[in-house]
Amino acid sequence: MKLDVNVLRYLSKDDFRVLTAVEMGMRNHEIVPSELLDRIAGLKHGGTYKVLKNLLKYKLLHHDRSKYDGFRLTYLGYDFLAIKTLVNRGVFTGVGRQIGVGKESDIFEVAQEDGTILAMKLHRLGRTSFRAVKSKRDYLRHRSSFSWLYLSRLAALKEFAFMKALEEHDFPVPKAIDCNRHCVIMSLVQGYPMVQVKQLQNPETIFEKIIGIVVRLAEHGLIHCDFNEFNIMIDDEEKITMIDFPQMVSVSHQNAQMFSISFQEDRDDETEVEVDENSRPSFYDITKDANALDRELEASGFTKKEQNDLDKVCPPYDLSNNITAYLCEPFIEGGLEKSTDSDEDEESDDEEQTLNEMESLQLQEEKRSDEVEAE
Ligand code: ADP
Ligand code: MG
Fold this sequence. Notes:
It comes from Brassica cretica. The protein is an alpha+beta fold.
């Protein structure tokens, strides 16, 4: 699906109101029933249905009638909600060309008012397997199970939190600018992914730099898990920038000690680099820094709970296989529920809360437009 940001211009306040209502409804419904949507959006005279038609036309929603009449956001709809929020915050003013596409992300250039170009990464966790599994899932039983919306948001939050923490410790990473929903805004890295570079002027220096980064990560209690030529950018001056660390784990993570040991053994064999046993950080040394780092991550909103949720669907590595193995099966049947409790009271509480939030959102919106008019 192509991200056509021109559509943003044609979307009215009511369009966004209904789009937001779908997002809120999706917290506890995979497909949001039409009547609930109408109640959350609260538009008069059947306004919601007219707006829904418009949103469908622009492919921001998906209409599902398989079990009951309802709607869910498409990636495009979720993209627009994030973009609108970030534009309102003044983070950027326009979206440019696409500069990268991954299995689970799309990267675009965005421009700020003064012409500065930044990179926008839209996480798309579960893009590949969502459709296949969706049909198997039972609406009531999975009412509170993790959705791709939640998972993509977690992935973005994780990337943002790590990027900020890494930058604070002088690691060569893009500057983390802002984060909303599944979207991370960061500085644009000049240069190319290392995989595209045919010849290096100073391969030894680059090698040392890269190994230096791995060692320094370990000293901070971090394991990258996917440090390769796709995720290292290099510019004409052969400056290195590390991007993309979805699987990065801190040693406080349950498997990290085991992983760290297997990492050290594998590395020595494969690369035949002479490493002085005593100069390597021990697991004990590493854990000293890890707690400080965990606190920094939590400051950005990425807590142990978020890491655990993400681990359940995206185990960071498979120790039985090899060190870079990465299993990602976002919609494994069962075992993913946040709460197995599904009584009716809880549902109506949820709905009440959603309606209240929608109301306060509307008040904020009205206040903001009053302020703009007053200026
Ligand atoms: P994925 O998680 O899908 O692998 P990446 O973060 O590795 O996504 O980005 C995919 C591609 O997008 C990269 O290989 C690179 O070409 C480009 N890219 C990502 N982030 C930036 C950035 N900050 N500046 C410039 N290009 C970037
Ligand atoms: Mg990558």
